[in-house]
Amino acid sequence: VEINGGHWVELHNIRVTDGFNGIFVDNLGRLVLENVVANFNEENGLFFDFGGRVDIRDSVFSNNGDDGADIEELNKVYIKNSYFNENFNIGVNIRNVIDRVSIKHSEAKYNLEDGLDISDADIVAAEFSHFSYNEDDGVQINRVNYSSFSESSANYNGQNGVEGLLNGSNIFKWFDANNNGGLVDIDPGDEFLFGNGIALGESYYIMVEGGHFNNNNNDGILLVDTHMADFYEVNAKGNGDDGVDMFAFDRVAFRNGHFSNNYDDGIDLAGSLENGNGDPQLLARTGDQTENYDVSIVGGFYWDNVSNGIEVDFVGSAYVASVSALRNGRDGVDVD
C-alpha cells in the first residue's frame, strides 16, 4: 500500500505481507490504521514520513526486515492495542514529533535492536505496555521534554530496560525493569553502559514511584547529571552493582522502598568524579559537575548488600532518618 499526499486516509481489516514496505505513507494529514497486519515485509511494516497524525489500533507489525513501524516528522502519534514484535531492527521507531506520542496496551518484544525508540518529541506517555526481550534496549528515549511510563515494563533486554539522554522530565509509576543486560556480549570496559533497569543521563527531573528494578547485570537505576530526583516505594534488589547509582545531581529524595542484596551498594549517591565511584567514561558525557547537593532519605530497607546499605559522597547537606540498614558487608550508612 502506497499513499502520497492527501488529507485523511483510513485502512481497516487489511493484511499486507511480503512487500517492500507494507504500508508507505508520505505527506498525509491523518492516517488511521485499524485491524491491520503488516508482517514479513522486506523493509518496514509501516513507513510514515511527514504528516499530521497517525492512529494505530488493534494492529500487528511483526517479522519485518527493518522496523515494525518507522514514523517521522508528525504532529501526533497514537498507538493502542498493537504489537511490534520480532522485527529485524526496531519495533517502533518514532522521530521528530511536534506534540504527543501516546502508547496504550501495546507491546514491542523480541526485536533485534530496541523495542521502542523515540527521539525529539514534546510529550511521550506509555500505559500498560511492555518492551521486553529485545536485543538492545527495551526503550530508548532521547531529547523528549516530558515522558511518563505507567503500569508498564522493560524486562530481559540485552542492554538496558530504558536508556536515554537529554530529556526534560521522566516519570515512572509502577514500572518494572528487571533482568536486563543478559542477552548480548559486552566488550570489556563497557559494562557500565549496559545491564541497567533504567539508565538516564542529563535529565532535569526524574520521578520513580513503585516498581521493581531487580536482578539487572549492572544497576537497577543509573542516573547521571540529573538536576532533581524523587524515589517513592521503589524496589531495587539483587543487581550486579548498585540498586540505585546516581551522581552529578542537585537534589535527591528517597521515601521508603527496598534496596537489598545488591552486589555493591543499596543506593550510591555521589556528587562528583572525585568522590564518586562512577566510571570516568560515562561522566565525560555529562559536562560540568555540580558542587552542591541536597540528599534526603527517610524510611526504607537497605539490607544484605555486599558493600554499603547507603553510600553518600557529597558536598552539601544530607538527612537520613528511620531507615533499616542491616547485615551489609561494610557499613549500613556511609556518609562522607
Task: Give your account of this protein's structure.
- With 336 residues, the chain is an all-beta fold.
- The protein is built from 1 helix and 19 strands.
- Residues 273-293 have low confidence and may be disordered.
- The protein is elongated.
- A 6-stranded parallel β-barrel has the order 8-9-11-13-12-10.
Per-chain topology:
Layout: E1 2-4, E2 8-17, E3 23-39, E4 46-57, E5 69-80, E6 92-104, E7 116-127, E8 139-150, E9 162-165, E10 169-173, E11 198-201, E12 205-209, E13 221-232, E14 244-255, E15 267-270, H1 280-283, E16 293-298, E17 310-313, E18 316-321, E19 333-335
Parallel strand pairs: 1-3, 2-3, 3-4, 4-5, 5-6, 6-7, 7-8, 8-9, 8-10, 9-11, 10-12, 11-13, 12-13, 13-14, 14-15, 14-16, 15-17, 16-18, 17-19
Strand order within the widest beta sheet:
8-9-11-13-12-10
- Number of DSSP-assigned strands: 19
Q: From the alpha carbons, calculate the radius of gyration and give it in angstroms.
A: 21 Å
Tertiary shape: elongated
Global structural class: mainly beta
- Helix share bin: under 10%
What are the segments in which pLDDT stays under 50 over at least 5 consecutive residues? 273-293
Mean pLDDT: 90
**Based on the structure, what is the oligomeric state of the protein chains?**
single chain
Count of alpha and pi helical runs: 1
Can you write the helix and strand succession as a string? EEEEEEEEEEEEEEEHEEEE
Q: What is the rounded distance between the termini?
A: 63 Å
Q: Sketch the major β-sheet.
A: 6 strands, parallel, barrel
Beta-strand percentage range: over 45%
